[in-house]
Amino acid sequence: MTTPQFALADLKRILLEGAGADDGAALDGDILDRDFDDLGYESLALLETGSRIEREYGIALDDEVFADNRTPRALIAAVNLHLTTSAAV
């Protein structure tokens, strides 16, 4: 069985689903290393994003995952690490 991968396209889709299409303009271009605050996503939006990731991928993320991973690149890596760890159990 292959481990699902979480990619930038998945993160963008989930952010847009949670915040709405009007806020999607901030997700254009090279955003991998931009802080979520700079992209217009505050803590409440990130909590919703985390809930959506958990439901869709069947994992449980610690509350600190967003505090510790402030950019899309870091969050994607953290989610993929979680997916790999969950699949190994």
UniProtKB/TrEMBL annotation:
Q: Which UniProt keywords apply?
A: Phosphopantetheine, Phosphoprotein
The UniProt entry, under Pfam families, shows: PP-binding
Q: Where is the Carrier domain?
A: 5-83
* Database matches in Gene3D superfamilies: ACP-like
The answer to whether the entry has keyword Nucleotidyltransferase is no
Question: What is this protein called in UniProt?
Answer: Acyl carrier protein
Source organism (scientific name)? Streptomyces atriruber
